[in-house]
TrEMBL record:
Ranges for domain Ig-like: 142-209, 218-307
Biased composition (Basic and acidic residues): 357-375
Membrane-traversing stretches: 318-339
Name of this protein: Basigin
InterPro entries referenced in this protein's UniProt entry, alphabetically: Ig-like_dom, Ig-like_dom_sf, Ig-like_fold, Ig_I-set, Ig_sub, Ig_sub2, Striated_Muscle_Regulatory
Gene: NCL1_37258
Keyword tags: Disulfide bond, Immunoglobulin domain, Membrane, Repeat, Transmembrane, Transmembrane helix
Amino acid sequence: MEEILFSKQLVPSIICGLLCFISAVSSIDFSSAKYVQKGGKFILACEVTGLGVHLWYKDGKPIVPNSVNKFHLESDSPSYSHEKSNYFTIMRLLVDDADSIHTGEYKCNSDGLYSQRVVVVTENMIETNEDYPGMGKILIPGEPLVLQCNTSECPHCTVVWFKDGKQILSIPNQLEIHEKNNSLTIEHSSYNDSGVYVCAIDRKQLDVALNATIVVQSKIKLEKFDASSVVVEGSPLEIFCNAKGAPMPFIKWFIGEQEIFDVDERVKILEHDGLKRGKLYIEEANFDDRNHYTCEAYNQLDSVNTTVFIRIKGRLAALWPFLGICAEVAILCSIIFVYERRKSMNQCDEPETDLPSDNKHRDQKRTGQDVRQRK
């Protein structure tokens, strides 16, 4: 990218004409710095009056072009201005391969009133708040996620945020973009907030395209299996590996110590809940399937596993306890029936006992009366 920068000394009208002739730049702000990307090109041009030798100055020192500083000087032949009754010359300072040594304050006259500051920016001028350089940011679901891009070489620059190629805008009470420190905050993060974030210098403030990437990832959350489980012989055996993480975890299955692949005839590894290889399936389990089953989930950041011991129960295994219970109930009912029947029979065979005392007294009175009447 070629950057053309100008300064002026005497004749504003002539300068305007030169701007229109030499470059497509419509306006120049001499009070602000001009940014050039490292490796790019830029040209400084200005008008000086009078005849003689004119020099360019950088940070107050005259520039002497050589193979180290990579400066090149050009100038037009002096021209006479009838308006000012003097000669003027257009001087140019060219740099084809900008580097950090070219950052500084430039003048085309040591005592000139106007100068131009040039800042050569590098691709890594944006400093991110990655947990580990080049490793991105670790997301913890439920906790705030804060991303920041510091523009050290351009302290007044603001950035524009993108996620997975789409620009991000603030969402009240959910996502906030702070221009003061070029940060992005998600108050209650989730696995969906993982992805590739890019902070780019606003092109309205910087002519060069600079950005930085922050990859947001999360460790794996794996739902643990029960210690053991029972499957009836001939029934389907299904085990689900519920793992979440960013990037999406890869899954491995083990029966005992042996890893299971998709080519196995009996054991099928299927997709589950959007997770490839998230389900282990055996259509008809048999006693040989009694074993430890392990699901291992892993990605670039993490690796976790969980194991369940599968017991195989015979088809009729549940029938024998049921028959035993039925037999116990039948025996108990028989005992109760016999007992009640015998008790009822004994009550029927018992002789009549003495009458109650009241009836006995009545009978005695009647007998006495009968005896008295006979007399």
